[in-house]
Amino acid sequence: MSLLEISDYRLAFDGFDGTAAVLDGIDLAVEAGDTLGIVGETGCGKSVLARSLLQLNPVPPARVVSGRILFEGQDLLRLPEAGMRRLRGRRIAMIFQDPASYLNPLLAIGTQLVDVIRGQDSAAGGVVRPRRAARALAAELLAAVGLAEPERLLDSHPHQLSGGMRQRVLIAMALAGEPRLLVADEPTTALDVTVQAQVLALISRLVADRGLTLILISHDLGVIAQSCARVAVMYAGTVVEEAPTAELLARPLHPYAQGLLAAVPDLDRPEHRPSGIPGSIPNLLRPPGGCRFHPRCPRATAECAATKPLLRELAPAHRVACHHAAP
Amino acid sequence: MASRSLRLAGFLFRRSFASMLGLTLVTLIVALALLGPWIVPYPDDVAGATNLAGKLQPPSAAHWFGTDEVGNDILTRVIIGARLSLLVGLGITLAAAAIGVPLGILAGTAGGRLREAIMRVTDLFLSVPGLVLAIALVAALGPGIANAMLALVLVWWPGYVRLAESKALSIREEPFIEAARVAGAGRLRILWRHVLPNSISPLIVKMSMDIGQAILAVASLGFLGLGAKPPTPEWGAMISIARGYLPDWWWYAICPGAFIYASVLGFNLLGDGLRDILDPRSNRG
Amino acid sequence: MITYLLRRAGLAALMLFGLICLTFIIANVAPSDPAALAAGPDAGRSQIEQARREYGLDRPLHEQFLRYVTDLTRGDFGRSVANGRPVGQDLARYFPATLELCLLAMALGVLAGVPLGMLSAVFKDRWIDHATRILAVSGIALPPFWFGLLLQLGFATALGWLPTSGRLSVFTEPAAPITGLLLVDSLLRGNGALFTEALSYIILPAIVLSLPCLASILRVNRSEMVEALRADYITAARANGVLRRRLIAVHALKNAMLPTLAIIGLRWGWMMSSTVLVETVFDWPGIGLYAVSSAISGDFKPVMGVTLIVGLNFMIANLVVDLLYGTLDPRLRDA
């Protein structure tokens, strides 16, 4: 049994203008110890998918249409809020895009960490350790994410920290409950390029040291290539291709994945001009029928407009959702 | 696009019970003010007929809210009072906006010393809570409905300066103003085309709220004996007389007070509802 | 932080000076002749002129203003025409009653408004949210003088549970004031009977005075809580398993309290100003009643005195709010 198994997951957002089919039949499995990257453009639903794993999408407007998300054999979509609370941070933890807005501006770092640690204790059903003991653990966690002078840091506030430090604090918080699965939603997007590499290296080290399973969301293939063994490409609420990272980079099979790769500038070959994908992402209130990519696809045929392609395994561990893809 | 946002606004407004209640109350009050003289049960009592034989009667089928100390039907006088209250509330708000908005836009777009001067004077007026300042002004000018109105306008305009100034300031920073200026549009043209339309939504919201508050303020001054003088059918002044007949003739005070409450409530709810759809980011209480 | 506070204090001092100017201007644009007023209703021309000289009203305006300001710095607010007493003395006598009433009303407003705002934000769009919304809009729309009369009719006349008006029974002789606040003084002296009596007199006017304040605290706190509960940092804290009650009562509330504090400061001034209505209804012997009775007889020195006191209170309240802001918001502390 996989650690995480998502099957036929459909999520809609209800609004005044109608219902947006934000996630349209997601099928994904993640084994324990796996590192999976999810890549796609802004608005493709990758962050919504990440938040679904912790049931953080606000209901309403979000509405589950169908599907299952099995984590350790439990269906998260049917788990009551109380059960979900026991999972958050302890089994599945999450780190976010913009560390400045994801830390409470008015509370000291120490207070925020101590509250997380004590929250975990209480969710575990055991004794809740006193604040002083929690504070000691908080300092250890800060040291573990490579922050100097953790004791002093506990008394400082978020505005006194740099972006990279804030993201490390958020990572420390995510580690507090010793989770099995770490979901990182664009963890480096808001950071300076030099800091990005450090934070990615930290995540990779923690994943290796603590035996974590990682799901890393990014719009940047380079980031995913650095830290993930496998990658899934999302387009307009569907997974269009899933493969080992090296394989996808070398031989993308889905036209969208090919376009995505062609759009990346290549520093080794400056003569190679990056090319964009013509057209724009579809309006999910009225998504195109059949394959959602067909209006922009150079290889589209009548079949693409009529039937939605399912993920097919075209090579070992390489699955593609395209009528025309061939190995 | 415009029709979509209009439809969305209509949808949100109709969905809210509170907004619809506000609209209903305001419509009722306006209708009473317009139709008052033709629909009151005792038209003779409007001019102040006396009927001492029938004074201070309790509520009955003939007089739903009883009669007052000279035998006039209380409901009749309260309905007639709607016209005065509404006019006064509307007048104060419009006059305050007419003074405050141009000053605010001027301060917001001109900047420099002029802005400093306008805003300091505004802050000064805002530093004394409204009712006390109004009483101080009435004390100096002498009591009466006209002076009460004047005092309340003097108390009310600074709020509009603040609003218009902050809107003008924030719009001044917008890229499209920069673009318009680069394209050679004059200051007046920018004001007219960009600043004013962008200030309209919060202005409408504030005015709706303020009409209610102005009605309440005029009634308050009337109650204190500093506003309208009896026998003017002003709600606050009526309650002030009714107070002398408490507790034995308790019903006298009920009807005028309920009308003040209903109209202030109506304008507040309407303003609230309008804010939810026109200006959702601001939610100051 | 220190410079921030000093700046705010400096601004407040400037405003106070402006307020003094404002009251002076109001007093001088008055169409009524202050000298005629001072000389009394039956005074002849010569008596009026004598009064004019006596009060310095024949001097040029800037001299009069200078004298007004120097008098004020010595606590001299001028003399009431109606009773001939110095206004400063009367203000000192009436102010504690108003302060006591406002403090209790503000306590009621905050203690009820903040938790109710929090509850309705947490249970947004549920029945408790709708119920508090009705309370909030009513609180702002109910005419305080009418609501006061209704409470008198209900609790004093019909039920007979509470006294109608006044601060104490006319037969009760309170001991010399310590703080001037009867509730506090009676506790300090351990006089339980006096405390209960004072409480029975103050409770109705305090409720009437607190209602608009409660309503706006509730509204602001609710909408700020709704906003805070949607914030990214709450999502993160939730994702990491912070306990729900801690999340609401500390993480979100602390952020919602900043704007709520601002409204509390604002409301303190409005509350002082509404005492003119509430004190009139309940015959509460405070500065509000003093201002109204003076205004009716055209005796405006006391009215200006009350205006200054209320404005001063408003400024002090805003300074206290600024101070609290500084302690609550670490970003300001470092600024």
Write a short abstract of this structure.
With about 325 residues, chain A is of the alpha/beta class.
Textual characterization of the structure:
- Chain C: It is a multi-pass membrane protein.
- Chain C: This is ABC transporter permease.
- Chain C: The chain crosses the membrane at residues 103-123, 135-162, 198-220, 252-270, 303-325.
- By secondary structure, chain A is an alpha/beta fold.
- Chain A is built from twelve helices and twelve strands.
- In chain A, the strands form two sheets. In chain A, strands 6-7-8-3-9-10-12-11 form an eight-stranded mixed β-sheet, with helices on both faces.
- In chain A, a hairpin with a 2-residue loop joins strand 1 (4-15) and strand 2.
- The model of chain A has no long low-confidence stretch (mean pLDDT 84).
- Chain B is mainly alpha-helical.
- Helix content of chain B is 74%, strand content 0%.
- The mean pLDDT of chain B is 81.
- Chain B contains ten helices and no strands.
- The longest helix of chain B has 38 residues, at 187-224.
- Chain B has a single domain, classed as MetI-like (MetI-like fold), CATH 1.10.3720.
- Chain B is elongated and about 80 Å long.
- Chain C is mainly alpha-helical and 335 residues long.
- In chain C, helix 7 crosses helix 9 and helix 12 packs antiparallel against helix 13.
- The longest helix of chain C has 39 residues, at 244-282.
- The mean pLDDT of chain C is 85.
- Classes of the chains: A alpha/beta (327), B mainly alpha (285), C mainly alpha (335).
- The interface between A and C is medium-sized, with 35 and 26 residues.
Question: Any key phrases for this structure?
Answer:
heterotrimer, A: about 325 residues, alpha/beta, Rossmann fold, 8-stranded mixed sheet, 4-stranded antiparallel sheet, 12 helices, 12 strands, C: about 325 residues, mainly alpha, 14 helices, about 75% helix
Secondary-structure map:
The complex is a heterotrimer of chains A (327), B (285) and C (335).
Chain A: E1 4-15, E2 18-30, E3 35-39, H1 46-52, E4 62-71, E5 74-75, H2 81-87, E6 92-95, H3 99-102, H4 109-124, H5 131-144, H6 150-154, H7 163-175, E7 181-185, H8 193-210, E8 213-218, H9 221-227, E9 230-235, E10 238-244, H10 245-250, H11 255-262, H12 302-306, E11 312-315, E12 318-320
Parallel strand pairs in A: 3-8, 3-9, 6-7, 7-8
Antiparallel strand pairs in A: 1-2, 1-4, 4-5, 9-10, 10-12, 11-12
Helix pairs in contact in A: 4-5, 5-7, 7-8
Chain B: H1 2-15, H2 17-39, H3 74-110, H4 112-126, H5 130-141, H6 145-172, H7 175-182, H8 187-224, H9 235-243, H10 251-278
Helix pairs in contact in B: 1-10, 2-3, 2-10, 3-4, 3-6, 3-8, 3-10, 4-6, 5-6, 6-8, 8-9, 8-10, 9-10
Chain C: H1 2-29, H2 34-39, H3 45-54, H4 61-73, H5 87-122, H6 127-141, H7 144-158, H8 182-188, H9 192-229, H10 232-239, H11 244-282, H12 287-296, H13 300-328, H14 330-334
Helix pairs in contact in C: 1-13, 5-6, 5-9, 5-11, 5-13, 6-9, 7-9, 7-11, 8-9, 9-11, 11-12, 11-13, 12-13
Domain ABC transmembrane type-1 (chain B): 82-271
Subcellular location (chain B): Cell membrane
Pfam families (chain B): BPD_transp_1, OppC_N
